Amino acid sequence: TDGFTETGCLVELKGSSLQTISSVGGETFYNLTINNSSGVKLLCDLNVTGTLTITSGCIDLNGHSLTASTINESNPPVASCHSTHTALLDAGGEVTISTNDIDNGSTVECGAPILSLDQAHFTCADIGDNVVTLTVKDIYGVEETCTSTVTITETTLPSLTCAVNGDQPVN
Fold it and tell me: What is the three-class DSSP state of 125?
């Protein structure tokens, strides 16, 4: 395609050889279906005002932007969490966990999964069980979530220092 705006029908890119979408001013499609096992490479910005459907293959963004009102994927992200994780507070009463502590092999069809946690930093106020949500996002912005119970425990027992004088007993 070259510099046109398609406004009313479905455009389908299918086959088994790499296809490209290029234009100086970018491309706009109403509905676009990608059904190409070798994928599609963007050589310009792409806007889909209706639905982008990806049934086979990946879109290589190649540094360009992709916007779509709706994205349907035959293989959306799969979020997989460890059911539990225990984190120990440090001497300062704080601990930070990472996505690696919670993720249990989440996957996306294209590229590497983009992982984030809704809470990663904990303090003494969080001792006990805390439900943490892991969000798994693909390069198109499609998300899936799962949850894990993070148990915050303390390992350092409190210490007490008492001044001793002859009139007061020490317990």
Answer: helix
